[in-house]
Amino acid sequence: MTHDVVLAGGRVVDPESGSDRVCDVGIDGGSVTALDEHLDGRTTIDVSGLVVAPGFVDVHSHAQTLPGRRLQACDGVTTALDLEAGRTPVEHAYQREATRGSPINYGFSASWAAARMHVLADGLLDGSAIAVFGGLVGADWQRAATLSQVGRILELLADDLAAGAIGVGLLVGYAPGVDPAEYVAVAELAATVGVPTFTHSRDIVELAPETLIDGAEEIVRAAGETGAHMHYCHINSTSSRHIDRVLGLVGRCQAEGAHVTTEAYPYGSGSTAIGAAFLAPERLRERFRDTTSITYLRTGERIASDDRLRELRATDPGGLVIAEFLDEADPNDAALLRRSLSFPDAIAASDAMPPMWTGAGRPDLTAWPLPPEAVVHPRTAGTFGRALRLWREEGALPAEALRRATLLPAQLLEGSVPAMRRKGRVQVGSDADIVVFDAATVTDQATYLASTRPSSGIAHVLVDGTFVVRGGHLVEDALPGRPIRAG
């Protein structure tokens, strides 16, 4: 048999079976069709000395633009899903993506935040990202809802789940006034339908003693009370220096049978809108040293004072910032970060943001490489290269690092998303979503000062059997990405 594509002589690692051997990979029609020696291919690529692995599955990516997805493709990502924030109505979001095309696979949860903004604050309801992120800083949607309003929110979410949304995304951390009973009601809906929830947790008590309920307790309680699968998003950034207490709580609940999963990204800084409730001057020091922990991306400035912070929140509430919650250069903080990354079965996920342009005029979103005026948190370009490097430094590359970036996220979703049963593996019959990299050199190149540098050591990336990265270079006209939906 002559295959469409053959990746010849690489070290093929399948995280599910534990297979780790040198062989050829035959690809036909978007699927892996052979794993053997001396395969014939219409296109044969010599990958000897390189690792051939499943493409990385990012369950927490807001970088749902062409520039963002290109950066993620160059980091080995073949599927990027926005499950923490989501979209509503989700059908509109999928239609929009199908029209414009994508280099990598994509998908969305049902957005509790967008539904809530619509019901409580007459927010947009068009399935767009701006409907979610543009309304985050508004105060009206953050308050407690009436029973009838909660009922309407649940109706909108149920409609999205019927349309194939991948669970429910819950940005509870941005709405501190939400009644905990509403959160449980959403979990009950998810449990009934049989889909996961993805939560940006409410404040934990160490950071905000006045919180209505400890954010970590809220997640595990909902899992225990409803039986829902509760996924704890970026557990490192919302727990900060209290990660040991939070991980201990999650671990105990997992041992007792609660379905709680976690994720973390390998950075000590996060990124969000400057108008977020927890960045208000009167609350900032609950989790950050002072205003200089916040970098305003549009100007690159570290915010010098409370007055400057108030000014920026008033004039550009949706402006992106980078917020340092751990000092990556401090050995104690670095150890805390490592514990969240190495927690048993913690998934690697990026929380990637789309690049923004600092220059004047309309940006050219098709330009590649990205120009210097394009800026973003480095996790968009470098999460998986950085994770591989960190695991390599501890002698755990590639098997364990790959499992956390491929098989675990696929297994998290495959109970309700049939397409994920063919991802996260390199087996005959699995999807030909594949990354080929140099285990000895793969690393992130993006930094806080040069945030859009693609990772290095990634030789090839295939999505649905099509090269989107070949020979270390982006294939600019390749748009083989497919929608991923539940049901």
Which terms summarize this structure?
3 domains; alpha/beta; eight-stranded parallel β-sheet; Urease, subunit C, domain 1; 15 helices; 487 residues
Task: Give a quick summary of the entry.
The chain is of the alpha/beta class. The chain contains 15 helices and 23 strands.
Count of DSSP strands: 23
Q: What is the CATH-assigned architecture of the largest domain?
A: Alpha-Beta Barrel
The major beta sheet can be summarized as:
9 strands, mixed
Report the average pLDDT across residues: 96
Q: Give the CATH superfamily of the largest domain.
A: Metal-dependent hydrolases
Descriptive overview:
With 487 residues, this protein is an alpha/beta fold. It has three domains: 2-54 and 418-474, Roll (Urease, subunit C, domain 1), CATH 2.30.40.10; 56-277 and 324-413, TIM Barrel (Alpha-Beta Barrel), CATH 3.20.20; 278-323, no CATH class. It is 31% helix and 23% strand. The chain is built from 15 helices and 23 strands. Strands 1, 2, 3, 4, 5, 20, 21, 22 and 23 form a nine-stranded mixed beta sheet that branches. An eight-stranded parallel beta sheet has the order 6-7-8-9-10-11-12-17, with helices on both faces. Strands 13-16-14-15 form a four-stranded antiparallel beta sheet, with no helix packed on it. Helix 3 crosses helix 5 and helix 6 crosses helix 7. The longest helix has 16 residues, at 147-162. The chain is globular and about 65 Å long. The model has no long low-confidence stretch (mean pLDDT 96).
